[in-house]
Amino acid sequence: MKIKRPGQLPILFVARTVVNTVPRIVYPFLPSIARGLGIPLTTATWFITLRQVAGLTAPFLGPVVDRSSRRRVMEVALLILTLASLLMVGGTTFAGAAIAFVLFGLAKVLYDPALYAYLGDTVPYGQRGRAIGLVELSWSLAWLIGVPASGFLSDRWGWRAPWAVLIGLGVLSLGLTRLGLPPGRQRVVDAGGAGSAPPIALLLRGWRDLLRRRRIAALLITCVLFVVAVEVPFVVYGAWLETSFGLSLTALGLASIVVGLAEASAELGTTVITDRLGKRRSVLAGLLGLAVSLLVLPGLAQLGLVGALAGVALVMFTFEFGIVSLLPLATELAPEARATLLSLTVTAFSLGRIAGATTGGWLWQGQGGGIALNAWVGAGCALAAALLMAWGVAEVGD
User: Are 108 and 23 a contacting pair, CB within 8 Å?
Assistant: First the structure.
């Protein structure tokens, strides 16, 4: 089934950009949030932790998306994001901001699986890489536009200003979604009297049925290793650039533009290449490219700051190309439970970030400011993920 209304992808793109802006602006502006609330920065870091913990609810919410209108779930997610932004504007306490960040986490893990499942329902598999690649441009756009815009707003009108704008953008996205998208409801088949079983039994049965399939188990482990591969070096890349090249905070901020541009280039690349090359082959190309780019990163850094930034751009390009190519592949591995599987995929990404950040910090200690060990461990994880993908995941749906 093809998308019938040409305006659907732009609507999804706008709404997803709004959803993605929150996680992208929090890190650079966390100190200003802490000052505004009158709390130490170490206390404010709990906001990020709370958002990540809320994100771990994704496996429990996926079956809800499979039994609901995709559009309605996206509307609920946008409403939650708007209410959370309202709390950030009107709240004056740590507790209010903490609740807001929990809501931000819930909005993200509700919206993303519903979005991917909606595209899986409405876009033919042969064109799905292009559609998801276009929507995924919202991730880099939230960085390239959202971060500078938030800085400008904060400088002019205070730390609450970006959240006030997000209220308006959330309402706009909610209205566009409501008026511009058909419901996209997933039909759920009740086989064997499953509808009379307790909800927890249905949930466990759904997980079991998915995880017993080799290609799905292999995909989820691949997702964990894929994210670990990039997180191990990237959790310390700011400290590495600062230590090795003496960059100021301002210069580090400018250097981060390299990351956004590399991500955007990769996302555009998926719109042209992934469907033609094949989703599975594109993921393998991304994983092997990531492994090679991580192996050569320390050598490129020996050429100076330009070489180091070129290496960082190559790492982010190959990672983003592979991960965005993986999403359309995942949408067709279990069409009867798209949102459930995609929610498990989101959880696998989160576990990879947690494991990678922990491991990366530990490896960084005692290296004297070098990146080599982190990069090589990341390359090993990328190669392991490529082997697992080649062995365990077959492409379906073409």
Answer: yes
- What number of CA atoms fall less than 13 Å from residue 19's CA on the CB side? 32
Query: Is 275 a domain residue?
Result: yes
Q: Are 232 and 367 found together in one domain?
A: yes
Per DSSP, what are the bridge partners of residue 69? 185
Distance between CA atoms of residues 41 and 61, nearest Å: 31
Buried b (16+ CB within 10 A) or exposed e, 238-269: bebbbbbbebeeeebeebbeebbbbbbebbbb
What six digits make up the tokens of 244?
Answer: 């090795």
Structure tokens at 35: 């000052």
Q: Are residues 224 and 332 in the same domain?
A: yes
297 and 342 in one domain?
A: yes
CB atoms within 10 A of CB 124: 12
Are the CB atoms for 317 and 43 separated by under 8 Å? no
Question: Phi then psi for 13, rounded to 5 degrees?
Answer: -65, -45
Token pair listed for 366 = 């005692």
Are residues 315 and 219 part of one domain? yes
Domain that holds residue 313: 202-392
The verdict on 46 and 135 lying in the same domain is yes
Nearest CA to 12 among 53, 61, 70? 70
| pLDDT average, residue stretch 49-76 | 85
DSSP assignments along 229-286, one per residue? HHHHHHTTHHHHHHHHH---HHHHHHHHHHHHHHHHHHHHHHHHHHHHH-HHHHHHHH
Beta bridge mates, 137: none
Using an 8 Å Cβ cutoff, are 386 and 319 in contact?
A: no
Q: 171: burial class by Cβ within 10 Å (0-12, 13-18, 19+)?
A: middle
The token pair at 37 is 């609330």
Q: Quick one: residue 206, left, alpha or beta (phi over 0 = left, psi -120 to 50 = alpha)?
A: alpha
Among 30-34, 155-159, 175-179, 357-361, the range with the most confident prediction by mean pLDDT is 175-179
Whether the CB-CB separation of 300 and 311 falls below 8 Å is answered with yes
Phi, psi of 185 (to 5 degrees): -70, 135
**Angle between the N-to-C axes of helices 94-122 and 338-364, in degrees from 0 to 180, rounded to the nearest 10:** 130
CATH of the domain at 116: 1.20.1250.20
Render pLDDT for 191-237 as a digit per residue (tens, 0 to 9): 344 455 556 666 777 777 888 889 999 999 999 999 999 988 887 87
How many domains does the chain fold into?
2
Provide the 8-state DSSP code for 185. B
